[in-house]
Amino acid sequence: MKIKEMKLKNFKAYRNEELKFSTDKEKNVTLIYGVNGAGKTSFFQALNWGLYGYDVIGTNNTISSMKTIAGKYLLDELSEGETEEVKIEIQFENDGYDYTLTRIAHFIKKNNELSYLMKNDFLSLYYVSDMGKPSMIKNDSLDQEQKISRIINNVLPFGSREYFLFDGENLANYSEANKHQCLEIKNAIRQVLGLDDFDIAIKNIKAVNDQLRKDFEKKECSEKINDTNNVIGDYQERQTKISKEVISQRYLLKEKNTEFTKNEDLLKSFHQEIEKIEKRSEIEKEIESIKITLSLNLKELRSVLTQGYMCYSESIQTECFNLLTSWRKQNKFPTKYYNLDFVKNIIQNKKCFFWDFEENSEEHKFFLKEEEKLQNWGHNIQNDLTDFYGKVSSLKIGSKSLIKDISEQHKVYVQTETKFREHILAHEEINKEIKSKITDKEIQECNNKREIIQNEILKVSTNIKSLTEQSILFEEEIRKANSLLNSMKSKTVEGKKIQDKKKLITESIYWLKQLYEHYSQIKRQEVEKHMQDLFRNILWKKQHYQDAKLTSDYKLTLPDKWGDAGEDLVSKGEGQVLILSFVAALAKSTNDEAPFIIDTPFARISIEPTINIAKFLPEQVSQLVLFVTDKELTTESERLFTEKTQYVWTIKFNEENSETNIINGKQVKTEY
User: Fold this and answer.
1) Are residues 299 and 422 in the same domain?
2) What global pTM score does this model have?
3) Cα torsion for 196, 200, 201, 202, to the nearest 10°?
4) Sheet of 659-664: strands edge to edge?
5) Final residue of a domain: which of 451, 466, 493?
6) Which of 46, 380, 605, 637 is the most exposed place for a label (fewest CB within 10 A)?
């Protein structure tokens, strides 16, 4: 199927607009620009409604209500009681036929509101075969309307429309790894690739089998057969009750597992916070310890600083010391080894240490001079100067030692103060990280709840196991009773014929299931291959990741080069590109050509993969229609897409008349 043209009349803000689509094999891309609020989503809704009508209306559906589809500007133009139509016309080609699908809904103005006239709906399908023969189907009757729906569904099945008419905002939802994703993917493959036919066939054959079973039961009515039937009925009734109880218990188990997971997540968050709180407590203790050390360091520093005046007089001490030393050398100052009394004693005894000397000898004269010199100084002065010289010398040495002590004490104080500031900063940072106030009571409650839920899970699991074992026993008893019953009934000719038919049908169901599984796996592998080809070209971290996988249990994975396929290792953007590749692979794998129409496809996808998508996505599908905002395409990706387009359009909203217009060409400024 390729959509050729679409016309809109009074659908939301579209008064009378039409748009042609690119259908050329080489130029198969249609670009439709529009800023947020211009009407891209409304056009997307119009296409859905035009194809499927009331099936896309309702809460949580494509269109919430039929009341919303009529253009509000009609309220200003219609008189009370006057009617107007909302019309969508879609021209498309498929399998050699050209089709024109027209869908019309009527609205009436009542009490300043537009009311939908359901019974006045009009639907027609005009088609021309490749032989040129035209035909028209109208919804003159329910049968005719259903016939049109069947034709449309054969061309583009309603159940798989969301994979061809794709809302790009859903990329984020599909890329979220969850327990429903595998089922969604399996259903997508089944619906898009026509595997539902197998389900329908199996369902129909089972219905025939049930009817044969009923016929078989009517063939014999002997008391023994009736008794056996009653036994079977009793077992089946009890087994049905058990099956219902198993379903109920499994649902309960599912709830308990969910509750357990939530509680575990809460505990995990608690533990993360607790670690931070404990770390903060350690920092606070260290801060208090450092405060004490800092106080002691300050006390010691102050102690040595109280003697600091000695350091300030160091230059004076040096001057005094040098002056006294100079005086001594000039004999203006007595030596430190003798004084006046000592010299007088030598002169009186005429004896110096180990030798004697004569009066008027050289030695005698020397000591007389020394006596005279010392007498000039005066006894008290020489003693004072001698003492002063010793004190100055001692003070000079003490000053140097004191300077060294002050320097060392100051260094220790600075180091301690730096450590204190570092801990204060660390305390401030960890306070920012701690988001909640957790109490021991909350943690204890979570731990208690964990134990309770674990016990409940064990209890429910045990119940399920016990019920399943009972069900197996009943199933075996039913099998034995049925075997006996069939043995009795098969003795009749009619019973034998029915048994043969039932056997054939049972085998048919078995082989249909086998064929279904085999074919679905082939299709899964085919989709996986197309997905890998596209994703490998789009992927920008080619060395980091291996090939994307669609596993046999229908799980999308993206293992890295170490083989780790953890869901938390793939970014949101990478997950969305993977899903986009999967949906494109579905479109390529369908037996019939199908358009691939995407609304807002690149919202969270970065520059390089967007460029790669522009290079390779058009090759994967027969027709590609992109609704993009002014911010989604880069210069290069826009150039690549434009090279493959027949038509480029811009959707603009006119605030003056509240209408949306479709303009040929690109009429928006792209922000890169």
Assistant:
1) yes
2) 0.54
3) 100
4) 165-167, 595-599, 623-628, 29-33, 645-654, 659-664
5) 451
6) 380
